[in-house]
Design goal:
heterodimer; A: alpha+beta; Heat Shock Protein 90; five-stranded mixed sheet; B: OB fold (Dihydrolipoamide Acetyltransferase, E2P); 10 strands; His_kinase_dom (chain A); phosphorelay sensor kinase activity (chain A)
Chain lengths: 727, 160
């Protein structure tokens, strides 16, 4: 197996994607008007994972996906109507699979108990559902529709019995299966994001199941057989794909005789036990991304040496004959992309160096030189944009997990909440995707828990019973703006102030609404009358803000009593490049992030006041404490309190915590800079977020406006307004 | 990492050392830690750093700190001209430049040629020294450069 280990990583990646596909598809699944294609996609994903895990020896996953596949297969053969409950169970299983995958990936101990219990649970659910939904299934057994697969199944015992045409299938069952089972609420949610929300039914559906698992296992075996049956094909196919090559058969199986297609038939014969490998699917899936496939599958299969066409599901086969689309994406390690991004950063710097030199050329070549340089500049910029775009992912990578979260939470809390997602295609740097997920989760939980009222309260206050949480993302200038808007009760000003006082949090002095709202980000603050297990422990909001700020972003809150609350997160488009204003102080260049800058002014003498010996600036109808960059970072010993400030430039900046002025000698100009880490070879420096390389090859420090606040020391009436004490 | 270093010594009988000059004294460091040698160039000052940290430079895209050992140990005059040399070191996967008065030679030393350093008479604390070796008619001080650069005393790296 050693030679297989090199493929493990590929398997993990693929399995992860398949699991995500399954989750998304299950969430999208419409219980009332089922789409067989969706089921097929889920099935394929499960099948692929099963095959892959078997090949690579991740048996924990194999067993569970096998059972899952069983249920799915029945569903897509219309022997079983997938109810909300069943979907909940399936989603929970997906969760378990994710955990297992994670364990395998990190070489952790596998928790077989959980696996066994989810298997048992699935089987029980399946058995119950089958029993309830009635006899229809049996009848269908015979049918063996055109597909090869079907036939394959047929062999196996009761198992699946067959496939009814899809269309018909659903018809059989009128009632939803309200099976008794219970799923954890959490899981239930995700499925129907939008659909459900509207209907209200969902909620109820979910409601049924509170707890779940632990049921007795139905017989696994039956199910397994089917699955295995499928397996055959794959193994065969595998030969083509790399991974495939290694497949090994494990499952026991049942030799399936027959099958209409000869090819298949052969396939089976060869591998009796083999089974699980379902590479074809994998291949297919990968190639396209998920979901799409009907034709693809077909196509790909054909290509496979072993002609296992049979696998294609009936539906697909019948649906379209469209040609398979060649894979349009490839998997690339992020380190390679990061390297590329770095190299482009170098290129940008080199290009600006060349530009500097080019400007000095006086000779006859000057004109040609300038032309070439302009060309180079344009190409460089295009390369840079192209490379950066490689790192961009749609923010739906983050947003996709929230429908489920909201569903789980709202069920748990007995609220009716619809999550509306907008702008999911907005692209965001991959690094941000990973880091923004936790803060967003927290804010959404917060909206669901504290923001939206219960149905009764909403009704009483004349609102529609179903609350709405609107999650939207858009690009605005050089920033990504993410908004979480709920139509709940709004923030309660009095309660926040009272709470802050109770907690000993210092109140800002002009107690504006904005200032009050910002209080909820104070450490240890929580307004929930009682702590729920969802939120309310008060550990989160300050962490949320800190996380967002560490990404160079900021959070704002808008709220109106009775109307709702909006959290607005602004993030830089990317972590690698920053729009900055270059300023000079003490002969050094510093870069001030443009997002922090409000305005730059040359103060007039009368705008400078002295309070307690420190100079402050009066501008825009307020007092601005000052931070002297020349002194704080430039190494000058003298305090600005001894200078005539009207000879300096003051850059007014703001952070989520405070607003103040940076005293600098001159403004140099606005520029995009490539952010370089100072910690890589040195260490963190207070007041400095990083460094960049200027056009002349020199290093300039990028200011960390947030941490510069520490250089403001004396009080100016409020915690956030302070002035640096005179020397 | 002095202990690790010594471990290496016993395994590798002969090692190459780069000798450099600080003031009137000749020092040597393990050549395997040397990334490159370049002339001194203007640095970008780092606020609130000790005086021996001259600042950072751009080394082909990496932001690298430059340390002047002459200031740190009070040896020689910290002057900067076209002959001032910076030895770029690669220590624990980080790059650090040290300013010296000059680089003279590469020498091969066997373990037994390195004698223990005296407790006194050397600017460096003995924990940063491997020992002394004879070079023709003068002494070379063998510096344990890894221990020195990564020491808390220098404070270049974030304390672990």
């Amino acid at each position: 197996m050693d030679n297989l280990s090199q493929f493990n990583e590929a398997f993990f990646d693929e399995a992860q994607e398949h699991l995500e596909t399954m989750e998304t598809m299950l969430l999208d699944y419409d219980v009332v008007e089922p789409d067989i294609e969706v089921l097929n996609s889920v099935f394929r994903a499960a099948h692929s994972i099963k095959g892959g895990s078997a090949i690579f020896g991740f048996n924990a996953m194999t067993g569970l996906t096998h059972v899952m596949e069983n249920m799915l297969d029945r569903a897509r053969n219309e022997e079983l109507e997938l109810t909300n409950e069943l979907i909940t169970v399936l989603l929970e299983t997906v969760d378990v699979l994710k955990d297992i995958l994670h364990s395998y990936r990190n070489d952790e101990e596998i928790d077989w108990d959980i696996i066994e219990s989810s298997k048992a649970r699935l089987e029980t659910e399946l058995a119950q559902a089958m029993a309830q939904q009635g006899s229809a299934t049996d009848a269908s057994a015979a049918n063996t529709t055109a597909n090869d697969e079907d036939e394959g199944f047929g062999f196996f015992e009761e198992s699946e019995t067959t496939e009814v045409l899809e269309d018909e299938g659903f018809g059989f069952f009128d009632d939803e299966a309200g099976s008794p089972s219970n799923s954890d609420d959490e899981q239930g949610f995700g499925f129907f994001d939008e659909d459900m929300a509207e209907s209200g039914e969902e909620d109820q559906g979910f409601g049924f199941f509170d707890d779940a698992p632990g049921t007795v296992a139905a017989d696994e075996k039956t199910t397994s057989e089917e699955i295995e049956g499928f397996g055959f094909f794959e193994s065969v196919e595998i030969s083509d794909s790399d991974e495939a090559a290694q497949s090994q058969p494990q499952a026991p199986d049942i030799g399936v005789p027959d099958v209409k297609r000869t090819q298949e038939g052969e396939g089976y014969g060869f591998f009796d036990e083999a089974m699980k490998a379902r590479q074809e699917q994998d291949k297919i899936d990968d190639a396209k991304g998920y979901g799409i496939y009907p034709k693809d599958e077909k196509a790909s299969t054909e290509e496979l040496s072993t002609a296992t066409k049979s696998r294609a599901k009936p539906v697909k086969a019948s649906t379209n004959e469209t040609k398979n689309v060649e894979a349009t994406s490839i998997r690339v390690e992020t380190v390679k992309i990061d390297k590329l991004v770095n190299l482009v950063g170098e290129l940008v710097i080199t290009q600006s160096m060349l530009n500097l030199i080019g400007n000095e050329v006086q000779e006859s070549v000057a004109e040609k030189m300038m032309g070439a340089l302009a060309e180079l500049e344009r190409n460089t910029r295009e390369i840079q944009e192209a490379v950066m775009s490689v790192r961009m992912l749609p923010i739906s990578f983050v947003f996709n997990r929230f429908p489920r979260l909201v569903r789980d939470l709202s069920t748990k809390m007995g609220k009716q909440i619809e999550l509306v997602i907008e702008g999911a295609n907005t692209e965001i740097d991959k690094n941000l995707v990973e880091k923004i997920s936790d803060p967003l989760t927290h804010l959404i939980r917060n909206s669901v828990d504290h923001g939206i009222e219960t149905a009764e309260v909403r009704k009483a206050s004349g609102k529609v019973e179903k609350g709405t949480v609107r999650l939207s993302a858009m690009q605005k200038g050089g920033e990504i703006v993410i908004s979480i808007l709920d139509d709940g009760a709004g923030l309660n000003r009095e309660r926040i102030v009272a709470k802050a006082e109770e907690k000993g949090i210092e109140l800002p002095s002009p107690l504006t609404d904005d200032a009050v709202w910002q209080l909820i980000f104070a450490p240890g603050f929580s307004t929930a009358a009682e702590v729920t297990d969802i939120s309310g422990r008060g550990v989160g909001m300050d962490v949320v803000r800190r996380n967002i700020e560490s990404l160079g972003g900021r959070v704002e809150i808008n709220s109106s009593p009775g109307i709702g609350t909006e959290f607005v997160i602004s993030l830089p488009l990317t972590l690698a490049i920053l729009d900055g204003m270059c300023v000079e102080a003490e002969d050094q260049i510093f870069v001030v992030p443009l997002v922090n800058i409000i305005e730059s002014i040359q103060p007039m003498a009368e705008q400078i006041r002295v309070i307690k010996g420190s100079k402050i600036l009066w501008a825009r109808d307020e007092y601005w404490p000052l931070v002297d960059i020349g002194r704080v970072l430039g190494g000058r010993d003298d305090s600005i309190d001894n200078f005539d400030l009207s000879e300096y430039i003051i850059v007014l900046v703001e952070t989520s915590k405070s607003r103040f002025g940076l005293v600098v000698d001159t403004l140099v100009g606005q520029q995009q800079v490539v952010i370089k880490s100072l910690e890589r070879h040195y260490r963190r420096v207070d007041g400095v977020a990083g460094a960049t390389i200027m056009g002349d090859g020199g290093v300039a420090l990028i200011l960390d406006v947030d941490s510069l606040t520490q250089f403001i020391s004396s009080d100016l009436g409020g915690p956030s307004y302070a002035v640096r004490a005179a020397g | 990492m002095p202990s690790e270093q010594q471990g290496n010594v016993s395994i590798m009988p002969t090692r190459e050392f780069l000798t450099f000059v600080l003031g009137d004294e000749t020092y040597a460091l393990d050549i395997m830690t040397v990334k490159e040698i370049r002339g001194y160039e203007a640095t970008t000052k780092i606020a609130n750093a000790p005086s021996f940290i001259k600042g950072v430079i751009n080394l082909r895209g990496d932001i690298v700190p430059i340390i002047d050992l002459r200031i740190k140990f009070g040896i020689g005059e910290p002057t900067y001209n076209e002959w001032t040399i910076v030895i770029m070191l690669n220590i624990h996967d980080r790059i650090v430049g040290i300013v010296v008065d000059g680089v003279s030679d590469v020498m091969n030393l066997e373990d037994e040629e390195i004698r223990p350093a005296p407790e006194f008479g050397v600017a460096f604390d003995s924990q940063y020294l491997h020992g002394l070796a004879a070079l023709e008619d003068s002494m070379v001080i063998i510096v344990d450069i890894e221990a020195l650069i990564s020491s808390d005393e220098l404070g270049i790296f974030e304390p672990a």
